[in-house]
């Protein structure tokens, strides 16, 4: 590394948004513009549209995504997951974590800059409204410093009213992902007294979102987000991050007219620092605060255009690429993570594909022995519990498949409601001649009409021959 970078690591002792007395330093980033920002806008608006229409999208009458933590019912891509399927979700989550780690090792914090909801909402929604109402960074600073006059009052009132309204919409969307859009509509249209809990959740979520985006802002990324804080262990010299090419840029120096330039390409204009939403100087090297938003790349490229130098003084690059001019390589660590990811994904997909839509549990009633019937048959009493993971109700009948025999329900037949559970009690009656030992394995079929929907094996007690 060049001297300019390694001479001091003092910037790592503090974070840019807190002064030495521990007070918050408000970041006023300059409004970003440039090619990458335009691409990010497209990606962000696409993701926002997806997020807001998500609760209304259905597959087979079920939401694409619903995470009902209260009732412990999860619907992903129209498939219902009950607590019994929890291991599949855990495996899916593990695969997702490995994917994130692998992705981070190779591509750094691309997720933070391009996909993370915090960045998208803050940079593409709330901050853009702020620029629109209060103007660019210098105007915002001036407005905050000035006395409370008509201009300041209307601008602040308009901005914060819009912030609250958007926070309310986000909170409602989040609730729709938790309780489903139908229940949310009910809460909104019904008598408020009947939904005090739901309304309170709405108000709390709205308040939290408003606070995060109006006040807490980049502190989420620099102080709270665990993913951000794990960067130190995930990134290495081969990871592609937003990086300053110090070999090309240093020694930095101001540009002076009619002077033969002996310094590097960095003209120390500070534009990369001014646009940074987390208030850092990327020329110091990779830092925990950098969310890879690319604003500094755009800002520096614009300067390079002005001074007739090639783009890319700040660009997506690895430390190795800059220091040793090496091209990207797939390392052993990346290969190992990829192998783990492939195995996890394979198991996850297999479990998903072989998952049954109806889950049955059949248990012999505890404490009951077998009974001898007058016709010579032997009978055992069972309890059955059925879980329906589909959006379709089923009238259910049971048949003994192996060995020959009969199922007699204690009450009438079973009705399995859509997305519901039903329980029943039945006798299995088997001719004594079919039983050759005390403990016989029997196979019961669960039918809806003529359609076999699942089978279950259980034990049947009989007399020893
Ligand atoms: S250093 Fe650059 S990429 Fe990182 S947060 Fe700041 S502006 Fe964004
Ligand atoms: S924008 Fe580019 S030229 Fe200007 S200070 Fe930053 S790195 Fe140097």
Automatic annotation (TrEMBL):
One Pfam family of this chain: Fer4_18
Key words of the record: 4Fe-4S, Electron transport, Iron, Iron-sulfur, Membrane, Metal-binding, Transmembrane, Transmembrane helix, Transport
Residue ranges of every copy of the 4Fe-4S ferredoxin-type domain listed in the record: 256-285
UniProt keyword annotation of DNA-binding present: no
Entry-linked InterPro entries: 4Fe4S_Fe-S-bd, 4Fe4S_Fe_S_CS, Cyt_c_oxidase_cbb3_FixG, Electron_Trans/Redox, FixG_C, Ig-like_fold
Positions of transmembrane segments: 42-66, 86-107, 162-181, 193-213, 336-354
Record's keyword annotation contains Ribonucleoprotein: no
Superkingdom classification of source: Bacteria
PANTHER family with a match to the protein in the record: FERREDOXIN-TYPE PROTEIN NAPH
Record-given protein name: Cytochrome c oxidase accessory protein CcoG
The species this protein was found in: Adhaeribacter terreus
Taxonomic lineage: Bacteria, Pseudomonadati, Bacteroidota, Cytophagia, Cytophagales
């Amino acid at each position: 590394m060049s001297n300019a970078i390694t001479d001091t690591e003092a910037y790592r002792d503090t974070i840019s948004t807190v002064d030495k007395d521990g007070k918050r330093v408000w970041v006023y980033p300059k409004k970003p513009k440039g090619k990458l920002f335009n691409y990010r806008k497209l990606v962000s608006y696409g993701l926002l549209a997806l997020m807001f229409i998500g609760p209304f999208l259905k597959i087979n009458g079920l939401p694409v995504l619903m995470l009902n933590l209260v009732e412990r019912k999860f619907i992903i891509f129209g498939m219902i997951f009950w607590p019994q399927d929890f291991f599949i979700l855990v495996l899916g989550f593990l695969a997702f974590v490995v994917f994130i780690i692998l992705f981070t090792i190779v591509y750094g914090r691309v997720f933070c800059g391009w996909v993370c909801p915090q960045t998208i909402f803050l940079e593409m929604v709330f901050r853009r409204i702020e620029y629109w109402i209060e103007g660019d960074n210098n105007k915002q600073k001036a407005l905050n410093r000035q006395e409370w006059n008509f201009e300041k009052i209307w601008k602040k009132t308009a901005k914060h009213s819009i912030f609250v309204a958007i926070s309310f919409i986000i909170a409602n969307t989040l609730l729709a992902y938790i309780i489903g859009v139908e229940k949310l509509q009910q809460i909104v249209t019904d008598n408020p007294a009947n939904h005090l809990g739901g309304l309170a959740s709405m108000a709390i979520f709205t308040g939290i979102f408003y606070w995060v985006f109006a006040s807490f802002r980049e502190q989420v990324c620099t102080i709270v987000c665990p993913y951000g804080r794990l960067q130190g262990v995930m990134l290495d010299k081969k990871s592609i991050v937003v990086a300053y090419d110090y070999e090309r840029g240093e020694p930095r120096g101001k540009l002076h007219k009619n002077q033969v330039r002996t310094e590097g390409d960095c003209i120390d204009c500070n534009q990369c620092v001014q646009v940074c939403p987390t208030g850092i100087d990327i020329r110091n090297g990779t830092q925990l605060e950098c969310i890879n938003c690319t604003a500094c790349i755009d800002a520096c490229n614009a300067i390079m255009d002005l001074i007739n130098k090639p783009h890319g003084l700040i660009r997506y690059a690895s430390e190795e690429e800059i220091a040793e001019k090496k091209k990207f390589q797939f390392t052993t660590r990346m290969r190992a993570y990829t192998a783990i990811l492939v195995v996890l994904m394979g198991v996850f997909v297999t479990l998903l594909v072989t998952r049954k839509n109806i889950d049955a549990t059949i248990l012999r009633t505890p404490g009951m022995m077998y009974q001898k019937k007058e016709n010579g048959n032997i009978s055992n009493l069972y309890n059955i519990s059925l879980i329906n993971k589909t959006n379709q109700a089923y009238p259910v009948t049971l048949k003994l498949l192996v060995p020959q025999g009969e199922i007699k329900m204690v009450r009438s037949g079973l009705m399995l409601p859509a997305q519901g559970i039903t329980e029943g009690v039945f006798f299995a009656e088997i001719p004594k001649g079919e039983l050759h030992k005390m403990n016989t394995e029997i196979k019961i079929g669960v039918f809806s009409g003529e359609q076999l929907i699942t089978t279950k094996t259980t034990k049947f007690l009989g007399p020893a021959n």
